[in-house]
Amino acid sequence: MKVIIIGAGMGGLSAGIALRRFGHEVEVFEQAVEIRPVGAAISLWSNGVKCLNYLGLEKQLAALGGDMASMAYVDGLNGHTMTQFSLAPLVDAVGQRPYPVSRADLQAMLMREFGLDRIRLGMRMVEVRDDGAQVTAVFADGTTAQGDLLIGADGAHSLVRSYILGQPVERRYAGYVNWNGLVAIDEAIAPATQWTTFVGEGKRVSVMPVADGRFYFFFDAPLPKGLPNERATYKENLREYFRGWAAPVQRLIDQIDEQTTNRIEIHDIDPFNTWTRGRVALLGDAAHNTTPDIGQGGGSAMEDAIVLATALQTHTQGIEDALQRYVKRRVERAGELVLRARKRSDITHGIDPQAMQAWYDELRAEDGSRIIRGLASTIEGGPLG
Q1: How many helices and strands (H and E) does the chain possess?
Q2: Which CATH class is domain 2-171+268-380?
Q3: Tens digits of per-residue pLDDT, 186-244?
Q4: What pTM value is reported for the model?
Q5: Pick from 95, 108, 102: which is nearest to 50 by CA?
Q6: Domain boundaries, the chain
Q7: Among 55, 137, 240, 319, which has the highest number of CB atoms less than 10 A from its own CB?
Q8: Helix, strand or coil for residue 126?
């Protein structure tokens, strides 16, 4: 079977690797001339790690992952630890460590494993055609590609989604802005093997270890949409938004590199159930664009990849039948994760002030068991347990 994948992100490449493992001919088309991952890193929880393990990438991923042995929440204003606990019980419960990973490193690894010669860059798709026997992708330069199946892994602004639904979908602003990047590990900011999150005033500052002695960091602040985005003012802006916060937060602001820091207005999309049309299917953010508040965007896309490839391999009633079975297995879980992340986002960023304060109070009484149970439940709900 010939498969066309639109989008060379984590989900599209994971699907490509899975389908090639089953012997299919796969080609990936990416509109960007150069692959630049959105965001500096990803907290890949154990369900996503298991998907890559399933594809035979266990050692490659482990080499990229940070040593995240514990987790802590800290009062951002006074620097007092609210809760701190080992993640060993989580690993014991689910059978796999989570890995904070640099997005650039993960992207490069997936591209190598899929095959650089099978990725076409600078190919912006403008039209999809499906005659019932073959799917055609039409690109802005006038060229076309034909296949038995087309997978739309083209992200939050997916053109393939518009084709399937018959209209564009409006993204919902979640109410906050995120800055993220990488800095050298500094134990004056946080312990080197801990995911540390400073919280207060509906804002967050977080650091987690990735490979090569680096922290992945992010700052969240509830802000109106459409404010000026000038890279040269990032430190100035963060000092203003986090004025009065504890010394480790100020130290982190001092150390960030404005030129390599990303600033993103966070959005999501209301869950929807129509992921296929004929021989065309959605995957990843194109199907279930979520906020990053429960760390499941990348992992959910990898789950899609495994379920889609398995459905095509194990069912013999035709491509359209296999795609419907893929959607049946994925749509409820993916939509639930979007809504769970949205609910967490509203609590974390003070959309519901009473719920936010109750969460802060819970953290001060937390021994880690409740958080680990929640993480384990999410992880074990994936297709690989």
Answers
A1: 13, 18
A2: alpha beta
A3: 999 999 999 999 999 999 999 999 999 999 999 999 999 999 999 999 999 999 999 99
A4: 0.96
A5: 95
A6: 2-171+268-380
A7: 137
A8: strand
